[in-house]
Every structure is written in C-alpha cells, then in structure tokens.
Amino acid sequence: MQKDFHYFAAFCAALLAGWSREESLEIATADQMADLCSRTFLEKVNGPESAVTTQLQLELMQARTDLIGLQDITRIWASFHFLPGDLTADPHRKTSKRYRQKYRMICQPNGPLVKDTVELAKGKGTAAAGLAMHVLCDTWAHRNFAGTPSVVINNTNYYFYEILDDGERPVTFRHSPGTPDDLENGVYINSVYQDNEDSIMNLGHGRAGHLPDYSFIRYRYLPAWGDFIEIVKDNPAEYWQAFCQMVCALQYLRGTRETFETDVYAYDTVEPLKDEIRAILEKRQPDACADWQGLGEKLSGCEMPDLDLERLENEYVSAAPEEKDGTLLGAFFLAALAQKSMVTNKIFRTGNLLAGWSVDFRKEGFRGIGDFWKLVEARKKEEES
C-alpha cells in the first residue's frame, strides 16, 4: 500500500472508529512512518537503530546477502510489511526444509500474527495503534508474497494479466527506475529478474512492481509456490475489507469493542460511506491521496494536513533524553521494537531461522541486543505505574 491508504485512509478509519481528530492524525502519522523509518532516518535523529521498519532503495542495494544480512532484511520486511500468514503451513508437495521455511513466510491476511499484532498495540497509545494498522493493512495488499528474498516464492513470469472492465490484457513489466507506470497501456515497472534465490531483486513484490499497492487493479498470475495454480487478486474488494478490518481493530484499541478477532469487519460502521469509499478504491489512478484527504476533511469537518516529518524530527531531537519516549516518534520507536521482537520470536519458535535467533524478553529477560534494552525499561515503567 501507499501513502494514500497508510496515511489518509488510516485517518478516516480512526475517525470512524471514534478517535478524536488529533488522535486520528497521530495514528495516521505512525501508520505512514512505517514506510519512512529507515536506518538513514534513524541516524539523522539519533534514534535506536533496531527500530528500523523499512529500507531505502539505496540501502537495499548496499545490503549484505550473507546469512546475517538476510536475517536482518527478513526481520524488517516480515515484521512490518509482509506478515507471515501461517508459520506452520506445509507446501502441497514434499520439499526441502529450506523451501518449507520460506513457504511459511508468505504473507496472508487474517493469520494468527495479525491478531498478535493488534493485541500487542492495546493500551500502548496512538503510535502503536498506527503501526499495527500499517502491518494489518499490508497483509491484504502484499498477500501471496514474502518479506524475505526468494525467487521461488516471489518471482513472476509472462503469465500475468490485468483484468479490466471490458476484458483483460497481458501485463508488460520493465525495469526502468524513476519511470512512472503507464496505466493506460498496462506497462509497469518491476525489479530485474535474478535467478539467484537470495537476490534482493526477489524481495517482497518487487517482481510484480507496484501492482499490489494499487487499490484499483485486478490481476491474475501463476506463482511457482502455488504449483502454478492461477491466483486472482481483486484489490478493490480486498482493500475494502482491509479498511473495514482497520476500523474494527481501531475500535478494539480504543476500547469500544471488547475483543479483536480475525475475519471480522466493521461493515455496519462503514456502510454509510460504502459507495464513496468503493468509488475511491475503484478509481484508476496511481495516487488516491487527494480523494482520501477529501473524505477525511468531510468526516472531521476540518482541514487535514499532510504529514509533517520535519516537525516530528524536531520534537524528538529537541526533547530531553528522559522525555524522548513521550514524543510521537519515541513512542513509534518503542512500538516498532516491540513488534519486531514479537514477530521475530514467533518465527524463531517454529524452528525457522530466516529472521535469526530470538528470545521473548518479557519472559526470559534482556539478552544482548543493546537497542532492545529500551523495551525492558518500558516494561518496568508500565509495572511501576
């Protein structure tokens, strides 16, 4: 997903869930921050390095692809953008352990980790709520791809068709960084094919370009991991479900819904706006920010500002050391550390080492990773309050 959904649509969802305008802006900001909090950004504000939630294109091109480097990549992308759907799933055929571990990293909505993610954010404030919404919504957009490099899991081939109102047409992929997608002619930018299983070009949905992130598109293709059985992806329908599930999760995090269960949606709450939202989702455009922003202003009765990253940076940098965790960025960093720790530990406990070695610090205490000491400090503050 893109900023249109992660920032502007998240603001709308938070308002519908009952959060105030200011709280909704903080939730939307934290949601979008998951796509901005790179190591380059953390170095700029002197934040905890392990709170990294994304990698810039240049950072990825320079990333190591040895064991340690691949585990670092997987911790970031699987924790925040390609949440595994079923960590115990088995392929339909007998395969090697290495392939099986990668197969289990495939992102899908409504998996156990979605529930864990939302429940982890309960009572942690707007920053944690916003981060959880980013993770939840990306399970819909990024389903069928994995947040670890794999040509077997993430590659696409010539059998890739865009489904249009009046038929369908083959998708033409090309590698031309900086060139916009040609929506009219069905020409889309993707990563370069590499037959190296662990090439960074085979991370996530790079081989499918931006298609998974467009709300308007429908397409069908044959992934190798699915024994070349055709998958049809209906993004307008699935983005609608993502939005309604986000409202449901935010109602739970606000305390107006007692529990959060997967595959439950706040259809009743959103129904009055269904036609308007579906029209935004169906509109054939690469960026729906203006439409979602208009809806947000209609719901709030006020102007909806764009994300002010400079203000967030200044607030965090100028805060005294003991006050940094109280800023929105500081709270976001803590939420990111907790989410990454939780997901990495869940992966590790299934015997899958793609995300590296892990302990559950809440049960076993701190073990050696300096930045994660902040989580222990936060836990102590919770217990004392």
Q: Give the helix tally.
A: 17
Mean pLDDT: 92
| Backbone CA Rg | 20 Å
The rounded distance between the terminal residues' Cα atoms is 37 Å
| % residues in beta strands | 5-15%
Helix content: 40-55%
Morphology:
globular
| Biggest sheet record | 4 strands, antiparallel
- SSE order, one letter for each helix or strand: HHHHHHHHHEEEEEEHHHHHHHH
| Order of the strands making up the biggest sheet | 2-1-5-6
Low-confidence stretches: 366-370
- How many beta strands in the DSSP annotation? 6
**Total domain units:** 2
Category from helices, strands and their pairing:
mainly alpha
Question: Can you describe this structure?
Answer:
The protein has 385 residues and is mostly helical. The chain folds into two domains: 3-149 and 236-277 and 286-359, no CATH class; 152-234, no CATH class. Helices cover 48% and strands 6% of the residues. The protein is built from 17 helices and six strands. It has helices at 3-16, 21-33, 39-45, 57-61, 67-80, 97-103, 112-121, 126-141, 151-154, 235-254, 267-270, 274-282, 289-300, 309-318, 328-349, 361-364, 373-384, and strands spanning 160-164, 167-170, 172-174, 187-189, 218-221, 231-234. The strands form two sheets. A four-stranded antiparallel β-sheet has the order 2-1-5-6. The chain is globular and about 55 Å long.
